Amino acid sequence: MLRSLITERARGVHLLWAVLAYLPPAAAMFGPMVVPWPGLLGRVSEACGGLAPFDVRGRWTAAEAREMLHACGATGREAYLHQQLLDLVYPLAVGAVLLLATALLLRRYGGRAWPLLLPVVAMTVLDYAENAGIWFMLLNWPDLNAAVADATGLVTGMKRMTGFAAFTLPIVLAVIALPGYVRRLRARRSGVTPPPAAAPTGNAR
């Protein structure tokens, strides 16, 4: 499936629709740039004594989870539940954008490049695993299972690492592809037909 996404299935129009679907949950999660509204993550932090939500931290521990949920109080935990409802959609939305963008940028390298899509898939799966742990802690408070909290904190750290790779890779690929795009654009403007790009060696599928 990932191989065929690179070689044929991903289209620019799919990426456009994915971006349009991503913008509303992103604005609700982080706050739109045009109005002074903090977004749901900002509201959680405000309601929890200025502490950062688990979702945007690095690895955290059961002790830090207890401190956070105690500082939140009933109002903060309710705000966190609202944020978690949106987080049922957000990981899929951002994952779709990154997966399609990376697949399109990898097309020039052929289907053998499909392992480079794995960081996006791993990030998305880990994000939902993290959410499951946070839901468990919120719904069972004041009882806190230290093993679940520590495991969820570890998942958050792994999500951050795979997320760094997932966000960085399309940027690097775009920078690599930019000179060739500029050359083709200049050639079209000057009426000169640019030489065809070299096909990847080996079986692309």
Provide a descriptive summary of the structure in words.
The protein is mainly alpha-helical. It has one domain (2-190). 71% of the residues lie in helices and 0% in strands. It is built from seven helices and no strands. The chain has helices spanning 2-9, 12-30, 39-47, 62-86, 90-106, 118-140, 146-190. Helix 4 packs across helix 6. The termini are close together.
Give a brief outline of the structure.
With 205 residues, this protein is an all-alpha fold.
Order of helices and strands: HHHHHHH
**Percent in helix:** over 70%
Number of helices: 7
Radius of gyration: 21 Å
Structural class: mainly alpha
Number of E-state strands: 0
Q: Domains counted in the coordinates: how many?
A: 1
Given as residue ranges, the uncertain stretches (5+ residues, pLDDT < 50) are none
Shape: elongated
Please tell me the overall pLDDT.
89
Note the main sheet.
none
Keywords: Membrane, Transmembrane, Transmembrane helix
Topology, pairings included?
Layout: H1 2-9, H2 12-30, H3 39-47, H4 62-86, H5 90-106, H6 118-140, H7 146-190
Characteristic terms for this protein:
71% helix, mainly alpha, 7 helices, 205 residues
